[in-house]
Design goal:
It is built from 13 helices and 16 strands. It has about 475 residues and is α+β, with helices and mostly antiparallel strands. Strands 7, 8, 9, 10, 11, 12, 13, 14, 15 and 16 form a 10-stranded mixed sheet that branches. It is globular. It starts with a helix and ends with a helix.
């Protein structure tokens, strides 16, 4: 009996999809298939098999080193797998023992930019068939199931800003290696500050058209392409999706954008605030609502013209605001991302809400009879792990529903009100998460301790680095 059969890891839908995928691989004469899982940072990692090995992977999965889950954003293993006390409650990863990547055949795609290649997303299991409890796709699925048990489906739409530059030097000299290595040298594709201008769009049209064809060729539901405010900054917006599907779409979109750009002499970066002259920070605005599973009704929709949104929607939003500081670790997981939270910047600096106001954290966009009634959380950065970002919204929102949390009145002055400030640094956010009982109950203490340990390691490494600012400020003065 195969590993997948023994532990009953596939639904009937996945079993049928596996047969169809194997038929398609033969029919289209694919030569390789990439098997990937999203790590703790939302970065895809995995293995590539020649086509003849796919049948075995669809029976027994693929083994992969568990130390991959112990790495920070520099790919450094910061939680030792060789010292028992440094592995937080996970004896299964000691010695970098194998995990099993189990393919989800319903995610299979052929890569338009590499048409000899298939691609499939995987979930992580231990050798005894148990889900790896710190694997973020599992956490997201669990959150969606908890919400479904309450009678709702989570609906979300992606609005993603990023920087699209032209590659000058990929920095591949021997001296450029490291953890991390030297960043690429780039030049602008547009000079910025001409928000949504036709001329700037036409300047970028050659590469944007290449991106559009590949993104749509993957089956991603792209809605629009836009020129953003900052130099070389663009935005892509996707139509609404259900449950964890938008998280799958986001990890594939980011990988696709970076790979396609690289092949055509460009560089796509989802870093929030790159060190470029006159730069504008990039955000990931997450539009969200709830759908009643029985009636398929949008439960955020207000019943009358005097209401900003339904009572259910207000309670959901109350949960988002109450848990905003702790959730920042999931919506803004990098040290760099906190440089975006500043007044009068079209990014929030406090946990406030408003009606169609782009300065608040949660922007309400609801009206009677509008089936697209929703809230837009503007707190996130595009480098966030999509599974943790979506799951954190569901966990916080469900807390609001359970506690019937009142979000208070809307504000018209997003940068001048009494709402709690958002964390100013990743360290502040990690401190808030460490003691947050809502996320600890939903994700488990094991995961919270694990992710905060990784983040604290990144923070310590950052704090030990001597910056150019420090050198300028102190070297001659003292």
């Amino acid at each position: 009996m195969s590993f997948i059969e023994k532990y009953d890891l596939w639904s009937p839908e996945q079993q049928q999809a596996a047969k169809e995928v194997q038929n398609r691989i033969r029919a289209e004469d694919l030569s390789v298939v990439r098997f990937s899982f999203p790590d703790q940072h939302g970065i895809l990692r995995g293995k590539t098999l020649v086509a003849g090995g796919v049948e075995g992977a669809f029976k027994n999965g693929l083994t992969i080193a568990s130390s991959l889950l112990m790495k920070d954003t520099a790919h450094r293993t910061v939680i030792s797998v060789f010292t028992p006390q440094n592995v937080p409650g996970l004896k299964e990863v000691r010695g970098s023992a194998d995990m099993v990547m189990v393919p989800d055949p319903t995610t299979f795609r052929v890569l338009p930019w590499a048409p000899h290649s298939g691609w499939v997303l995987c979930d992580l299991y231990f050798r005894d068939g148990r889900p790896v409890p710190i694997a973020t796709r599992h956490l997201c699925h669990n959150a969606m199931k908890s919400l479904a048990d309450q009678g709702y489906d989570f609906m979300s739409g992606l609005e993603v800003e990023f920087h699209l530059t032209r590659m000058v030097d990929p920095r591949l000299a021997l001296s450029d290696a490291g953890q991390p290595g030297e960043p690429s040298t780039v030049e602008l594709t547009h000079r910025g500050y001409n928000y949504l201008t036709e001329l700037n769009y036409d300047t970028l049209d050659p590469i944007l058209e290449i991106l559009r064809k590949n993104v749509q060729g993957l089956g991603l539901d792209l809605a629009s392409l836009e020129v953003e405010f900052g130099p070389s900054q663009v935005e892509m917006v996707f139509n609404v999706g259900q449950g964890s599907q938008p998280a799958d779409d986001m990890v594939l979109f980011r990988a696709a954008a970076k790979q396609v750009c690289q092949r055509h002499g460009y560089h796509a970066s989802f870093m929030c605030r790159p060190r470029l002259p006159s730069v504008m920070s990039s955000g990931w605005h997450l539009h969200q609502s709830l759908c009643d599973r029985a009636t398929h009704r949008n439960v955020f929709e207000p019943s009358g013209p005097t209401e900003a949104m339904s009572e259910t929607g207000l309670h959901w939003m109350g949960g988002l605001l109450k848990n905003a500081a702790a959730a920042a670790v999931f919506s803004t997981p990098t040290i760099n991302g906190y440089k975006r939270y500043r007044p009068f910047s079209l990014a929030p600096d406090r946990a406030a809400w408003g009606i169609d106001n782009r300065g608040v954290m949660v922007r309400a966009l609801c009206a009677p009879g509008d089936r697209a009634s929703r809230v837009e959380n503007r707190v996130g950065e595009p480098a966030a792990n999509p599974y943790l970002y979506l799951a954190s919204q569901v966990v916080a929102g469900m807390d609001g529903l359970a506690q019937k949390i009142d979000p208070g009145p809307p504000t018209e002055t997003p940068y001048d009100n009494q709402s709690p400030l958002l964390p100013q640094t990743l360290a502040e956010a990690v401190d808030a998460l460490q003691t947050n009982e809502t996320f600890r109950a939903a994700f488990g203490g094991l995961f919270i301790d694990y992710i905060t340990q990784i983040k604290r390691s990144e923070i310590r490494r950052y704090e030990l680095e001597v910056s150019e600012w420090e050198q300028r400020e102190y070297f001659d003065l003292f």
